[in-house]
Amino acid sequence: MTEGTTTAAAESGDTLTRLEQEGEIAADYLEGLLDIADLDGDIDMDVEADRAAVSIVSDSASRDLQKLVGRDGEVLEALQELTRLAVHRETGDRSRLMLDIAGFRAKKREELAALGAKAAEDVKASGEPLKLAPMTPFERKVVHDAVAAAGLRSESEGEEPQRFVVVLPA
């Protein structure tokens, strides 16, 4: 490879390395948080859909990690932003890292995918656009993906925090 040229494979490898680095930084940050809070949990790291994915899981059936999820994932969202800031501080790059705690986000993803599929079915049957309740950016993304998988289009409307998905007929 000559200077100034790159291959897609090299770029892909660099991206993976960068995302793995983000995951490592996030894991260190979250381990420190767990220690300070005196909570038990293991950190799992992965790369999904061009973003680092970090999960805090626990073998115990205790509700300790639920404290880090909060009502409707509010604490989880805040911890995700703090973790992204910790990664940004170390790398200088904006992070799109996704954090899950105690499987909350995975379960929510399943529920939202089902909601998006059902909304798409309803729109196909009625032929009319359907507005859904306001959602977080993560929630809207999952619904948009489910609607697209069902063969329809959707778009987001409104202003945060009242931004919502509209499912459109074909």
Automatic annotation (TrEMBL):
UniProt keyword annotations, A-Z: DNA-binding
Domain of life: Bacteria
Record-annotated R3H domain positions: 106-170
Pfam families: R3H
GO molecular function: DNA binding
PROSITE patterns: R3H (PS51061)
InterPro entries named in the record: Jag_KH, KH_dom-like_a/b, KhpB, R3H_dom, R3H_dom_sf, R3H_KhpB
Name of the molecule in the record: Single-stranded DNA-binding protein
